[in-house]
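Quick one - inputs below.
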Amino acid sequence: MLKSTNETVLHCYPGLVALVTAKWNDEKNIMAAGWHSYMSYAPPIYGVAVGKERHTHHLIAKSKQFAIQFVPAKLAHYIETAGGFSGRDVDKFERLNIAYQQGETIDCPILSESYAVYECQVKDILPYGDHDWIVGDITKFHHDEVAFDGMLPNLEKVQLPIYLGQSQYIIANHETKLTRIEK
Amino acid sequence: MLKSTNETVLHCYPGLVALVTAKWNDEKNIMAAGWHSYMSYAPPIYGVAVGKERHTHHLIAKSKQFAIQFVPAKLAHYIETAGGFSGRDVDKFERLNIAYQQGETIDCPILSESYAVYECQVKDILPYGDHDWIVGDITKFHHDEVAFDGMLPNLEKVQLPIYLGQSQYIIANHETKLTRIEK
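Output:
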């Protein structure tokens, strides 16, 4: 039964967590973002919420560039560990031994082991409450073709970490039962 | 292996689909939205992408109010059918026989069978590409207490429809294997 409450109900998962990378001068960083969304298909535009105090926010605000990436379940520990220490103090790529390469349209590292990557140029940084909503034009897509079957992820080939909250994940894989909902 | 492509990679699922309700004068409507996100925790702010041509967009733009709701798997057909015809032509609440009640802080129907509802006052309507990103201050929360165990959904009590794409869902329930990812 539906009951109204004055306490915040923070329900938006289960869903994918995005890894956000950014670089400014010689500093690069990576963070996990639970609040993110496509905003437009054509032209492709993506948005992500980043706290103003985050080192990644600083790098994006300076460089006006960032990348959004999704990693398979075997790399879900990147999501959990990326928040464990600040990029101000350590190079997380070295510490976590993360393979990366240079973006094609932006001067920003992209994670080589991702199955989907969106390179973005910042369009707007919009302050809303305790986060900024960062809007980016997607300037280049990358994907692992093996991980997709047309538009859908191919769960026979890639295991997806679906975040539930509190470090718990549902792993979508070849054993996951899929249900088709009819109109 | 990561390969760059010029085709749009529309990957943001698996995740929850939000049902959006709105009302203006005597017209009310409901639509499914795949692109939505929390934007701020305190104060609580939520965003959702709505096409300018949608009837729901018209109702929100006029009334400056809307509600975001999440429904259990047994009602996932609302998600699939809500897009099947336009609210300009039919009353979807009647047609789909959807139980609803009046919002507490907004003049807008909220779905009585949801397990989580956010009543929202429009803060901004931001045009980005082929959608508008509608930002709302959450003015009231509702939830089904049975469906939650603290902050997490209680999968013993509620089955969640996790949208994969193309009308396919992963049903998160008591049989879903949960994996804890360690740092």
